[in-house]
Protein 1
Amino acid sequence: MRPRLSPMRIGRLCLKELRESLRDRRTIVTLVLMPLLVYPLLSLVLNRVLLTSVTSKAQNGVSIGIASEFSDSQLPGILRLGYVLLQERSFAPTFIEEEIKDGEIRTLENKTALPQPVLVPLSGQGREALRNGVVDLVITGQMPAIRTSAQQEKGVESYERFGFFEPLKEVEFDPVAAKELIGRLEVKFRKSDGRSERALQLLERILAAVNNEASRGVIGVDYEAPFRVSATPVVMQGNYADLLATMVPLVLVLMTMAGAVYPAIDLTAGERERGTMEALIVSPVPSYALLLAKYSAVVTVALLTALANLAAMSITLWASGIGKLVFGEGVISTGVIGTVLILLVLFTMFFAALLLAITSFAKSFKEAQAYLIPLMLLALTPGVMSLLPGIQFTSLLATVPLVNIVLLAREVLNGSAEWNTALVAVICNGVYALAALAVASRLFGSDAAIQGSREGWKDLFSLPREPQIFPRVDQMALTMAVMFPLYFVLSSALPNLREDLGERLALSALVSFLLLLGLPGFVCLVRKIELKPTFLIQPGNLARWSRWGPGILLIAGAAWMVAHELVMAGQMIGIKIDMQQIERVSEFKDQLQALPLWLVLFAFALTPAVCEEFLFRGFILNSLRKYSLVWAVILSSLMFGLMHVLTSNVLAVERLMPTTFMGLILGFVAVRTRSILPGIILHFLHNSLLLSLNHFSEELKAMQILVEENEHLPVEWLATGGLALVVGFVLIWRTPKQLDAEEATTDSLASA
Amino acid sequence: MHCYSEETSFSFRAISLIEAQSIHKRFQSSGNTITALESVSFQVSAGEVFGLLGPNGAGKTTTLRIVMGLLKPDGGQAKVDDCLVGPDLPEVRAKIGMVSTNDGVYPWLTAREMLLYFADLYGVGLSDAKLRLDQLAEQLDLGRFLSQRCCTLSTGQKQRVILARGLMHDPPVMLLDEPTRGLDVVGSQTVFDFIALLKEQGKAVLLSTHRLDEAERVCDRFGLLHRGTLMYTGNLDEIRRATGQRHLTEMFMTMMHSTDQGSCNDEGSNECAPA
């Protein structure tokens, strides 16, 4: 009576683990107490840091930066004059407009309430100085521009290098020269920053006082237009926003890690320490199901921690005003918080698996903690590295665990996330999580785990004694976890290595052979996995080929039509091809046309056909087949599709559907024929057909045979293609009776 | 349920629930090969308590692990209720209940939750499991503390919960690995009562212990294990006849002495065939 593993049952198993974890006081401490303590403390520190750095040197006043454009002008004089005028109460202007708007009459406050302005001469436009809080306001220019000065905007702003507090040149106030400045002054201030807004208000008052005075004929003659201010708010997205945008996810990630650590240890090493592990292992439930339950519990607890932390952090940022100060209004929306949460989910899924892989073979709490402390330190290093200013979210960093999620979250908070790198980060994270989970389930069930010796790891790395027919899932997942990032990094780095397209193609073929073919082969040799069944190395005989051959030809001739229509269907449901990418692709196609056809066929038909068939239809499909043949085909084709979405530097989402479709066909062929060869030939023919069409596209277009890229194919073509596909399928599906009998014997041999 | 169809070549009793057939097991330890078990064979029938006796390190726990399918033997095979341990592992495990010295409880679950959880692990439906729980609560006197969290239970109460855990799925075979180690007189008595209960219910019990006085009290048949070899098997009278000693303790001393002399190395030379 083998008990069935229904989802309900797995759910009940999870519930027990969760119950056990959540009733434990120590879990509650990390879950509730930590966020309650950490964030207020953190906000205190942050406030301190941000305020000291944002506060200008003029402690009691506001500092007004004057761009280099005005360095020799009368502007400082005018401002000084205005300030003096303001100080004298009798000349102080009243702000009638404002007061009418408010519906009540307010007189200007006591003159001591006026902030003291400090005029800071700046070299350049002063944007940096404004952002860093050196000045609260910058007068950047004048409209209409009277001067077109050559020194304007030349080079880098150098207020730091030359010192920005050298006194302004005392220029004799010249009413005639001051007249040149009459008009609209362009001013920049920090949005939603109290000091900056006060400075703006002061400037307006100063200029109003000057205007007031001018209208009374004191300054000079020919006064037509008053001074006005045209103010542009600058949203603070400078260094501090960057720093905080990295720090927020980093702190969240670290807290989530802290939340996951305790349940992970408790549910594995803790279980062993309490003496309940053996009873669990000897139950008829397979150990991977037990591990899955534990995994879900750890992920859930970690996510609860993440949620608690996210809430505490959002409230802290909002309440302390830091979020507003740094991100401006409305930047932290529910969408952004939601995205960050999703990223945290992804990270948690990876980290929980990693934790379980490590704690699964620790025999006691102490031992597990001893293993985890180095891991936490190790995790901290890349985390802190991502805090360094100027770290770009490159495709290379997108493959580094932890760093990729922190940086991606930074991009999301900054509003500058890109799909390409985001998807790489997400996929890498998923692959790593699967690999870690596979290792964990292997270690968790091993007998060494129960005895608590270190055999678990030895078992994982020591050379196997007995040969194995097919690769196991954990071996496949680990291989992919190594291969995917490597392949991605290498294939995106290739274009930078060589200029010549031919050499580049040769190199990329080399990379394909080494990674896609070499790595699984290497794994099989080292782990004593039999190559023949794993890679379906079986030539087949003449009787079989008499059916396979025509079948393959028919499918290869027709499959591209379906693929083409799938791309079109994808466009209909909203998968748009990026215009830039279309350009790049067509440019690439033109480049290819210049190359000899044999080289193109080698690089884009033969190499992928051989490497990808051995990898996807051999190694991957066969590692999954013992669970379900259908799912093995579906999963391997999905992986096949995903791998093609991310090749090279572009994100080709539109390739997912047609490639997955091809993967299904090829998977079917491999499963039915039990040989890798038909798939290779089919794959090669399919690719070659498309490449040749491209190579001779000019000629074909001239003959009016080829249709344009984004048009539907003629109905007659589709009908013929569909028929060809069906006939091809039938030919491969139905093998003659005597062959079936023969296969049955080989089957029983393989399963024995 | 019949899961292994091969004809058994020899059978001493009508219903032999546990069968070990010339099991060999070697361990690799820092380059040395240690022989843990050497051609160990025995049977346990329904309603019989078989005591696997031996000093520490004799291979008792290893034997139990092999029967449970936690370890793979290097030679020979084990069968539980005619299911071969190995290929039919889930079936085998569903038929075995297991209680060992080091077993513990989940501190944050109540006794009821823990027992129902284990019933669920063995695929017992909830209503059946509740019936079984009531039954066991009565037999093992758990009723008072079933809804308490296990961390609040006393040692004796925990022990009874653990014993109940092994029986939640009503297995035909029970493996007890040093069940009385570290227990006081009352605790040991609970275990003896438990074993009596198992016998009464017609279960095949394989008990490993190094407490010979206890073994004499509760076991029907014995297997004397020394350095991985089963020196004698049989009931007390048979072993007495074979060794010429009256008490197990004395037999043990002779046995250990004789192996040290190297006179007893012939495989199976001293084994006495069961009647």
Note: The two ends of chain A are 24 Å apart (CA to CA).
Protein 2
Amino acid sequence: MTDLQQELSSKEVFRHFPGEELSRLVDWSLSRKISRREYLCHQGEIWPYILFLEAGQLSWSMLSSGGKVHQLFKINTGEIFWAHSFFDDQPMPGSLKADKTVLAHLWSKDVMLPLLMKYPKAMWDIPKKLTSTMRNAREIIYSLAFQPVASRLAGFLLDNLESSQYDSIEREMTLEEIASVLATSAEVVCRLLYQFQADGILKITRTQISFEDQTALEKLQTLSRRNL
Amino acid sequence: MTNSTINQNPLFDKLSQPERNLILDASIEKTYPEDHWITHYGSDWPYLFLVERGQVTALKESPAGRSLVVITLEVGDVFWGAGFFKEGVGMPVALVASQETRLRLWSREKLTPFMVSNGQFTWDLAQLMMERMLLASRILEELAFQPVAGRLAHLLLDQLEDQTGDVLARDMTLDDMAARIGSTREMVCRHLYHFADQGAIQINRTEFKVTNQKLLQNLAQKGK
């Protein structure tokens, strides 16, 4: 059994395929290696694939007709992504861009759908997977509808702090990149960060953001528009 | 019992008549009065349903009491509680009967054995879920990229599409409108009067008259 087959055998949907089918899937996979900032698929393109991310990180973002970008979520190593076009043969509503060098394995609809029809238990895993994705999308919608930018920024900083082992985070993202996650502008992010610093919540250096008052940040995160 | 609603629904299209009968036998029918809360946000509600009569609104309320209408389900629409697919997962929205409504419901317990053995039906349902995700994607796009004025202009234009003529009956309150565009009644009120000042609409107590549709279309595009 190859490493890829081993990895897939524990994943949703794939776990219901017998070993010989998994082995064939590994043989039929298209492997793509792309560098940081390169695109795996573009918004508007019909891209009927399932991908397994063996290494690196991808971000999913939407581009408005006016050229604004909103980054919605990340796909991390070991995760599987089901492209929208796989289901409806329609253009993708967003783009997948590499945050780091990426190694991805892809399967086309032509390969995957007959197999899913053959193994209905595997098919049954798909709506379950889509339920989680829809839940994430709804959370983003609610935060955009109900939370002011300051709350969204506080939430974003706290999420980053959670994945760091320290009481500070490295400034790995530009202001534009943070703004694209929060659906705002770099200017607003900058103004709010320095407002948080003036309020004694954060300390900002060129390379780091350290947390001086996490409780205040948590309070800010729960603020809704009406409370402001 | 008639199964005409199932026969006419694309989700059940590829099923044989015996399979449709089986599905129908596994369902229950429930009628809800207008404004009845079918299920609440966060509750474990393990059902898939088909709207046979009336209308259902899926909405989310913020801790501060504001509402966002996520989707309005009409006759023939199929929807589900998150708990239908994953046991113990709470509802991400509340469901309210906006009119007297009749639903045909299937519990997880009754339908899962059928779905686990019928790949085509599950695939059709997955495609329907993807349609809903694209709807969520459009809502996201509007909230992320369009200012309130653009979203409000879009709402008015959508309503105009369903009407003949240039007059819209004011059958939604300011709160209803705010809930559909993720804003507050104060903002909706302010922007409506701003549209009127610009000459895009005329407002009276019972209706809006669209006096300059092109201007309204420009406003809907602004900020995108």
Note: Chain B has a mean pLDDT of 88.
